[in-house]
Amino acid sequence: MFGLVLLATGALAVLARAASVPQLTLGTGVETAQASKFSWYDCSEDDYSMEVMDVTVSPDPPQRGKDLYVEVIANAGSEITVDVQVGRGRIRILRRTYDFCDEAQRLKTSEHCPAKKGAHRITATVKVPETIPPALFNVEAYGYTELDDDLLCMGFTVDFSKALRALDN
Predict the structure, then answer these.
(1) Where are the beta strands (DSSP E) in 47-159?
(2) What subunit structure does UniProt give (predicted)?
(3) Which helix (H) or strand (E) segment is 165 a member of?
(4) What was the pLDDT predicted at 79?
(5) How many separate domains does the chain show?
């Protein structure tokens, strides 16, 4: 299954949705902001059936209010759903479960459902909301097979805490 880009873009979409949650609007006067470099990691166990080879975003670092192009290279096994958790520091902000086929269609990825086993290069574009607060975001996404077996775990970090703040005069 091609699910990894959906995992990454789904997680970014959750982050985008989380940014619009009222309690996440932290501070005022943020005029311009740019994240530090995007980083990702594979937190899968050895027996998971999907291997993440690379995740690339452009622009890197992601920019508020701009489109973010995501490319994932992965080798996968079966159809999955994804459980995405967004955290700010050690605090869980949001948790959602997605159906990959639904998300693939919604995000207009380069893959179609159902996808076949094997190597995949998947691309999608998501909009980074301007309302993301200046904070470090840690996202972990877990994928499962149709039988609810572990498929993969992928995490990424985007740091918007180094945002440039406008001084209120």
Answers:
(1) 51-58, 67-76, 80-88, 91-99, 118-127, 136-145, 150-159
(2) Monomer.
(3) strand 164-165
(4) 57
(5) 1
Three-state DSSP state, 127: strand
Q: Is 108 helix (H, G, I), strand (E, B) or coil?
A: coil
Sequence-separated (6 or more) residues with CB below 8 Å from residue 128: 12, 16, 62, 63, 64, 65, 66, 67, 68
**Is there a contact between 57 and 63 (Cβ–Cβ < 8 Å)?**
no
| pLDDT one-digit tens code per residue, 90-140 | 666 656 666 666 766 777 766 666 666 777 787 888 888 888 777 888 888
For the whole model, what pTM was predicted? 0.63
Residue with the bigger pLDDT between 48 and 35: it is: 48
CATH of the domain at 19: 2.70.220.10
Alpha carbon 121 to its chain's center: 16
Residue 86 has pLDDT above 80, yes or no: no
Domain housing 64 = 4-165
Angstrom distance (rounded) from CA 69 to CA 58 = 5
